[in-house]
Specification:
single chain, mainly beta, 3-stranded antiparallel beta sheet, 0% helix, globular, Putative rubredoxin
C-alpha cells in the first residue's frame, strides 16, 4: 500500500526536514504554511 509509507518532507523556506506519512501543513521551525515538498529518496 502506497499511502501508508513514511516519507521525508522538506520546507522550501528554511530547509526543515520532517519524516511523516502526511504532508505537514505548517513548518514548526519557520511557521510558514504550505512550504513542504516531498524529498525524493
Amino acid at each position: 500500500m502506497e499511502g501508508s509509507q513514511m516519507a521525508v518532507f522538506v520546507c522550501e523556506k528554511c530547509g526543515y526536514e520532517k519524516e511523516t506519512r502526511c504532508k505537514p501543513r505548517k513548518c514548526p521551525q519557520c511557521g510558514e504554511s504550505n512550504t513542504f515538498k516531498k524529498k525524493e529518496a
